[in-house]
Amino acid sequence: MNKEDIISSGLLELYALGIASPEEQIQVEEGLRRYSEVKQELDAIELSLESYAQTYALEPSSKVKDKVLLQVAGNGLLNTHTAEQVKVRQISEGDSTFAGQKIYRIPTFFKIAAAAVLIALVCSIVLNYSYNAKYQSVKDQLDVAQEQIKESQQATVAMKDQLNVIGDKSALPIVLKGTAKEPDALAKIYWVKNSGDVYVDPTNLPSVPDGKQYQLWAIVDGKPVDAGMITTKKGIYHIQKMKSFGHAEAFAITLEKEGGSPTPTMDQMYVISKI
User: Engineering a disulfide at 214: which of 67, 160, 188, 230 sits with its beta carbon 3.0 to 4.6 angstroms away?
Assistant: First the structure.
């Protein structure tokens, strides 16, 4: 292999971490002998890994540190690429505290690899959390925008319907004036005589208390007939289609319990008008 192949193949990283196969070690060591650039690249990799190790390493206690240094000093240079078993010499004459014991040295590069994996895992968790948070925020904003668009479309359709009703030449406008209970109340009926369709505009009625709802009545042959419930969802009053009547003598609106009543509550009549 030439120097470019060795540098770009990833063999140097495996070699530095001590996990290269025997064949790969031979290839790297041959490259180190032949090319100074390979040696420089390996030095740079090891320096980078050492920097990671120093940044994230845990400092051992001074007592443990002194013992390990004494043990290593008595056994020469340790192999930095593989974990090997080291037999500790007797520290002093007659001192058998550590005699015959064995210690194991985990290569620095394995520590570096573990630290790098841990860092990568933490970064992945942080990135995933950040992505999910941003995704949820964008989704919430999109849901709000879609709801606003939907409401805008509904308002546009309602306004178009209102204009069609108001502009219909066959629609008879009837103003329902306030009673003694609510003198300032006002509503308007659009009665399309050729079809019998009835539309109500409750814009000028008072606000509806919780649990209550306005109900329209048509007076037919002297008797009140239910003409439907008036919707005031979210406090928005708009022209809406009610039940149809071929003929009627008057129209009135009362305030009833939510869902309506089979007969009008007379002391809760807000507006009325004869035709």
Answer: 230
